[in-house]
Amino acid sequence: MRFDIVTLFPDCFTSILNSGLLGKALAKQIAQVHLINPRDFTTDKHHKVDDEPYGGGVGMLMKPEPIFAAVESLPIIPRRDVILMSPQGQTINQPLLRELATNYDQLIVICGHYEGVDDRVLNLVTREISLGDFILTGGEIPSMALINGVVRLLPGTVGKEESLKTESFEEGLLDFPQYTRPANFRGWQVPDVLLSGNHAAIARWRCQQQIERTAFRRPDLLKKWQEEREQVTGDR
Question: H/E element holding 203?
Answer without folding.
Answer: helix 199-217
